[in-house]
Design brief:
heterodimer; A: mainly alpha; 2 domains; 4 strands; 5% strand; B: alpha+beta; Sulfite Oxidase, Chain A, domain 2; 9 helices; 24 strands; 28% strand; globular
Chain lengths: 209, 437
């Protein structure tokens, strides 16, 4: 009995829903035309909702701090390694050591191993990755220092100071000469030793890669 | 911040004093896995104290017969039983530190929000939701600022996804310490019901210009944390999430709003997101070049290795559990894949010589922790317990030797090799990698 009752209810639903869908469809069409009696459903979703407000150029500029490998985003200013020595000593050595190698945080300076890029082969090299042997783009240094360093006062260095610290670190890593002047034109031209070592992800599932 | 600190097996955060073995066992019911220990019949008496919690009440404070007195009245905010003290394990108490989910204390697939793992780069920022806004600009028709109220007004969506740090499992790849718990091995993965607005909705709102292919996602934290994401992921299943397990997202997980990229390494799902800049190329930030790239055996390094490979972990029995007697025990754990559904988990109770399919507990959801169970009759002999997961792409979780062969012994991130638990004849269980031979 109960089983028959369920079947009957199911049949009634089967008969009823197509009619309801048709009515809803007609209502939707008429709603679009009349503009008042719009029925709910996928057809009712607008192309845009219009929420939010237009961003003003000045507020975009205030937040848009990123720097790209071609130099897009680099601000005016300039700096040299000689100027960077003082800033590094005052603002960076507590975390990175007197020569940028002593820690306690990331080692910044060092070119070894100079050949082969064997980081994937030797577990001992994990903590030996530096700007000189691993970072692929010099512009990343400016971008990262500007947004995140020094650790105790992020965002506190002026563009000239950042160019100077970058020049010092690139000089200490034997990538630019001691008297190099870094600015928005020269920094993107610096070619890092590890630039061509990076490859795009080739894992697609199924295979172990 | 530096991966080598993450690696140091002896590093203990100042907030967590070194415990003696006796203290660990005494506190085990509270701190190390009350649920698991109870299953094992090892928690007949309440813990006397816990390293992180308050001392338990003394014996004379035992409650009266609950059938003879009225209980507590309703309250505004629920609390855990004082007998249950699951805790994250703070690996490094630093702004650039992390804390791990107590996987051995959890069942099912959902991670309670206050036990979701943490990994920060500049600490947890304090953000006033009233002044919060998300800016989308760059290669868009209409650069737009959305308030939190704006974001919440769009048609919402929620789905249960796991989120995992790409460095999770590094301990099990590099070396063996028998006293590693599931929490220490793989505690940088958690599962929540994430709710928010699909990023594709916002993309339609601002109008993406033709030729765009990437976007930068940037946080409001002290690191100005920023990552380049392929635009296609934004159109596919990315969301701006502001809900976690039904309520507002926790500060540690990105309050008031974060990017969520299902199945991709957690570090790409930028928390506390304030800016999206649409571009025609990646930005090459520090966190996608110097960090979160995977050195490989062929003397290259993999960039933008977003997808999380298939993985599984037995969470019971596992260290510090001691099985009190031989006989029937249910082996259980979690399996997950960033590429879709888990289709199969095999369990070996003989060190990988033979494998049997485990039961997959419903619901089995795509890009989600999946609970597996396997009934085991332990005859009291020494053995190795292992699990091996497969996903719907046909990928089979590799052995340690297979990963080392494919990527090298020095690779870092995406450590998904098969894990093993060594059972001693006296019932003690220790972490141990599978035999390499």
């Amino acid at each position: 009995m109960r089983r028959d009752g369920w079947c009957a209810a199911g049949m009634r639903r089967d008969g009823w829903w197509p009619r309801a869908a048709l009515v809803a469809f007609v209502l939707t069409l008429s709603g679009c035309r009349g503009g008042e009696r719009q029925a709910p459903g996928p057809l009712a979703r607008p192309e845009r909702f219009g929420f939010g407000r237009a961003a003003a150029p000045a507020e975009i500029a205030a937040w848009d701090i990123d720097v790209m490998p071609d130099g897009t985003g680099l601000p005016p200013g300039r700096g040299t390694a000689a100027e960077g020595v003082t800033i590094f000593a005052a603002r960076c050595t507590a975390c990175h050591g007197a020569t940028g190698r002593e820690g306690p945080f990331d080692k910044l300076v060092g070119r070894e191993p100079r050949e082969g890029f064997p980081f994937g082969q030797d577990p001992r090299l994990l903590s030996e990755r530096t700007i000189g042997n691993y970072w692929p783009y010099a512009t990343t240094l400016f971008d990262y220092i500007r947004r995140a360093m020094p650790f105790d006062a992020p965002g506190s260095l002026r563009p000239d100071e950042i160019y100077a610290v970058v020049a010092y670190l690139l000089y200490r890593n034997e990538i630019v000469p001691e008297d190099a002047v870094l600015d928005a034109q020269s920094l993107p031209r610096v070619v890092m030793p590890a630039r061509d070592r990076f490859v795009r992800d080739n894992r697609r599932g199924a295979e172990i890669r | 911040m530096s991966d080598e600190r993450l690696l140091s097996p002896n590093h203990e955060s100042p907030a967590r004093p070194t415990l003696t073995r006796r203290a660990v066992l005494a506190g085990a019911a509270g701190a190390m896995g009350a649920a698991a220990l109870r299953r094992a019949g090892l928690a007949q008496t309440p813990a006397q104290s816990t390293p992180a919690g308050k001392p338990a009440p003394p014996a004379e404070a035992m409650p009266p017969d609950p059938t003879r007195v009225q209980g507590r009245v309703p309250s505004e905010l629920g609390q855990r039983s004082p007998h249950e003290q699951p805790r994250r394990r703070v690996n490094r108490a630093a702004p650039s530190g992390e804390s791990e989910t107590p996987l051995q204390d959890l069942e099912g697939i959902i991670t309670p929000s206050d036990l979701h793992y943490e990994r920060h780069h500049g600490g947890v920022p304090e953000i006033d939701p009233r002044s919060y806004s998300l800016l989308i600009h760059g290669m868009v028709e209409r650069p737009t600022v959305f308030t939190l109220q704006d974001l919440k007004r769009f048609p919402a969506r929620s789905q249960i996804y796991f989120l995992e740090c790409s460095g999770n499992g590094f301990r099990g790849y590099r070396s063996i310490k028998p006293e590693w718990t599931p929490q220490q091995l793989d505690g940088l993965t958690s599962t929540s019901d994430w709710g928010g607005v699909p990023l594709s909705t916002l993309f339609k709102e601002v109008g993406i210009k033709s030729g765009a292919s990437w976007f930068l996602a940037e946080a409001i934290d002290a690191a100005g944390y920023a990552r380049s994401i392929p635009l296609a992921k934004g159109w596919d299943d990315a969301m701006i999430a502001f809900r976690q397990n039904g309520e507002a997202i926790r500060p540690e997980q990105g309050y008031p709003a974060r990017l969520l990229l299902p199945g991709w390494e957690g570090s790409a799902s930028v928390k506390w997101i304030r800016r999206i800049e649409v571009s025609d190329r990646p930005f090459m930030t520090r966190e996608e070049t110097s960090k979160y790239t995977d050195p490989l055996a062929d003397c290259s390094a993999r960039l933008f290795s977003f997808e999380m490979d298939t993985k599984s972990l037995i969470t019971f029995p596992a260290y510090p559990i001691v099985l009190p007697e031989r006989g029937w025990w249910e082996i259980t754990g979690i399996a997950w894949s960033g590429r879709g559904k888990i289709t199969r988990v095999d369990v070996s109770t003989d060190g990988g010589q033979s494998w049997q399919p485990a039961e997959l507990q419903e619901p089995v959801l795509p890009i989600c922790h999946t609970r597996f169970r396997y009934l085991w009759n332990w005859r009291g002999d020494a053995t190795l317990l292992m699990s091996r997961a497969s996903d719907e792409t046909g990928y089979i979780q590799p052995t340690l030797a297979q990963v080392r062969d494919a990527r090298g012994a020095g690779t870092f991130y995406h450590h998904n090799n098969i894990r093993a638990w060594r059972v001693e004849p006296d019932g003690r269980v220790f972490f141990g990698l599978e035999p390499l031979a």
